[in-house]
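Researcher: Let's do a round of design. I'm pasting the structure tokens now; please hold your answer until I've finished.
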């Protein structure tokens, strides 16, 4: 177990570090206004990608036919169709999107982004098929090389353009490299099939994920859109940087645990092993979310000051609060994995509806003179409510107990409160000691996670749970 999760986690961390270095480097090279404009390109791309997610990777892992060459070829064929459609849609929306953010003169740049879904449609899914067998080396290579190539391109692109186009072309290059590397790490020959039955099955499996992705786009980017529209590009740049510093570790944790636990849960579903493994997954996410908040509270401020200096000093007050917001998203990640393993793809719809429902509230308060911090507080309320609903759905639909989760959740809530007030009431050393005590107590209350670790850690690889 240690070797496997170490490979996945180190790969995701390294990938995130590379992308974070790229973001920090670009933010140092270009102006605040240009960085804010570049953030709009990321926003547009995320909108199209998240609103069209059909869960191809999850289908390859979760489906009983996921190891079939014909099924994989059919999924790849559907991926090409999806990429063509998305490219056309994004090209057509370039004008309205640029006008929405009052930058109509860069509509051509939004049109250029349309090449990203078109190219990514030719992605080879063999690395995800190998993940079914707990063979993660190809996936790790796939998540490492593209961001490395994109990072190496930043300085040449800066000398070539010197403005927001640096970020635009770095994004396009990373997506293109992802497709190339996916073919390079594959074991099977790339094939395309256009199978109506597989397409319909993919749509049935994926439409809740697609609608949930549209909602998740609003969850991840709604506040940025509101702040950029109402408070200006410089405020958007500050908020985007703080959000990136907290969202990145949350995504690393969620992607790593999804890759590690989903194949195990899918294989164990319907057996006696499933209940204990499910509790271990949920408990691990509570522990990881709490640990992430503690790390940001202790290291986030010094890191931002050391790397970005006075230019982004105004983003400091946002860090810990945004980390608390992301912690609830990490907690809910365990519920999402359990739901996918059982084929309950509609669960995330209800979770994200709750979060999105508060975005109009954020818009109203900002237009009435409130600042960024109020938007973050509203977001925390939404994420906490979404987690509560996600947990209730997965426990209720799968007949799982709540009791093993109550003590860890109470301790996690205590940790979040300490983190958010630590600048006011505690020094750094005292805060670190309190965090260590709370996290240790959390581990002691997680009997299922302890049992899972004991069964697997000694061998260095995964065993039947």
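Researcher: That's everything. Go ahead.
Model: Designed sequence:
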């Amino acid at each position: 177990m240690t070797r496997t999760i170490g490979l996945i986690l180190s790969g995701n961390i390294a990938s995130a570090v590379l992308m974070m270095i790229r973001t920090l480097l670009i933010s140092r090279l270009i102006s605040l206004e240009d960085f804010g404009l570049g953030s709009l390109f990321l926003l547009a791309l995320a909108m199209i990608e998240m609103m069209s997610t059909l869960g191809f990777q999850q289908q390859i892992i979760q489906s009983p036919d996921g190891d079939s060459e014909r099924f994989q070829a059919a999924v790849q064929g559907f991926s090409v169709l999806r990429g063509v459609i998305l490219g056309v849609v994004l090209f057509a929306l370039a004008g309205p999107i640029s006008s929405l953010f009052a930058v109509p003169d860069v509509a051509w740049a939004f049109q250029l982004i349309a090449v990203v879904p078109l190219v990514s449609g030719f992605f080879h899914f063999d690395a995800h098929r190998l993940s079914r067998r707990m063979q993660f080396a190809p996936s790790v290579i796939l998540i490492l090389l593209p961001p490395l190539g994109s990072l190496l391109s930043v300085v040449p692109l800066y000398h070539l353009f010197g403005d927001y186009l640096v970020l635009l072309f770095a994004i396009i290059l990373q997506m293109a490299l992802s497709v190339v590397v996916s073919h390079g790490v594959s074991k099977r020959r790339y094939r395309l099939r256009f199978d109506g039955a597989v397409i319909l099955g993919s749509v049935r499996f994926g439409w809740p994920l697609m609608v949930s992705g549209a909602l998740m786009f609003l969850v991840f980017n709604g506040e940025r859109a509101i702040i950029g529209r109402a408070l200006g590009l410089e405020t958007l740049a500050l908020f985007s940087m703080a959000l990136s510093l907290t969202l990145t570790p949350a995504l690393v944790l969620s992607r790593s645990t999804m890759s590690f636990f989903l194949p195990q849960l899918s294989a164990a579903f319907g057996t006696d092993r499933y209940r204990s493994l499910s509790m271990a997954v949920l408990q691990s996410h509570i522990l990881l979310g709490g640990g992430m908040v503690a790390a940001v509270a202790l290291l986030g401020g010094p890191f931002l000051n050391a790397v970005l200096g006075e230019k982004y000093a105004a983003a400091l007050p946002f860090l810990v609060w945004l980390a608390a917001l992301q912690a609830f998203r990490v907690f809910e990640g365990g519920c999402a994995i359990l739901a996918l393993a059982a084929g309950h793809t509609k669960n995330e719809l209800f979770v994200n509806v709750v979060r999105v429902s508060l975005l109009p509230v954020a818009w109203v308060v900002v237009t009435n003179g409130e600042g960024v911090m109020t938007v973050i507080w509203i977001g925390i309320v939404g994420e906490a409510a979404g987690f509560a609903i996600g947990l209730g759905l997965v426990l209720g639909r799968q007949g799982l107990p709540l009791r093993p989760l109550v003590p860890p959740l109470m301790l996690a809530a205590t940790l979040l409160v300490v983190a958010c007030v630590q600048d006011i009431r505690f020094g750094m050393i005292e805060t670190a000691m309190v965090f260590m005590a709370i996290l240790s107590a959390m581990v002691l209350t997680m009997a299922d996670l302890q049992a899972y670790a004991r069964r697997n850690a000694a061998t260095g690889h995964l065993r039947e749970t």
